Amino acid sequence: MKYVCQICGYVYDDAKEKVPFAELPDDWKCPLCGAAKSDFKPEANGDEKKVVTAIEPMEADLEKLSAGQLAALCSNLARGCEKQYKQEEADLFKQLADYFTAVVPAVNDASVEKLAKELQTDADNYAAVRATADANADRGAARVCVWGEKVTRMLSSLVNRYLNEGEAMLKDTNIWVCTTCGFVYIGDTPPELCPVCKVPNWKFEKIEGRA
């Protein structure tokens, strides 16, 4: 039996490993990306295909973006401009991102539990988004879906792990973020290659704790 990591694609093959997957401890982690054991699924039969319906565009579904969403959008656009060596445009998008970040209203009922639920919903919605991209032959959007889903599932896994372990999860270790795709890794040093987008580890940034 083979089990596949839903974040990075690492395959655990019972036939090649000394310990069957089912007998691994619950706190076992993916050796490539650090995902939890629960993020592995049995390898799908090649003949089985899940039917996903593409999303029909409806103007009525359009919503005004919140300040937080606009901050994230402008921050991502700034990063994209940097990679195209358009520093002036990048600086302007950063200014916009900083502005929208400053006006984000406080969320009085925020909780880790609610965050976990939102991340799971986002991850589950990627299938329909990817179907829409494929239906429109949009290769760029399809690639965004591949990276976005993997990163979102990793965030969901980490948040669920935090719910179980608490602050002990982050004790005496570091948090690293891939600046290309957003993949988050918990460990002393980042992996040699990003498990999602395959860039070298010098593309990772260490996240420092807030005072």
Q: What do these coordinates show?
A:
This protein is of the alpha+beta class. The chain folds into four domains: 1-49, Rubrerythrin, domain 2; 67-103, no CATH class; 112-171; 172-211, Rubrerythrin, domain 2, CATH 2.20.28. Helix content is 40%, strand content 10%. The strands form two sheets. A three-stranded antiparallel sheet has the order 2-1-3, with no helix packed on it. It has a three-stranded antiparallel sheet with strand order 5-4-6. A hairpin with a 5-residue loop joins strand 4 and strand 5. Helix 3 (112-135) packs antiparallel against helix 4 (139-165). The protein is globular and about 55 Å long. The mean pLDDT is 89.
* Series of secondary-structure elements, N-terminal to C-terminal: EEEHHHHEEE
Strand order of the largest sheet: 2-1-3
Number of helices: 4
Radius of gyration: 19 Å
- Counted up, domains total 4
Q: What is the strand tally?
A: 6
The average pLDDT is 89
Major beta sheet summary = 3 strands, antiparallel
Strand content: 5-15%
Measured as a percent range, the helix fraction is: 25-40%
Distance between the termini: 47 Å
Class by alpha and beta content: alpha+beta
Catalogue the unreliable spans.
Answer: none
Approximate shape:
globular
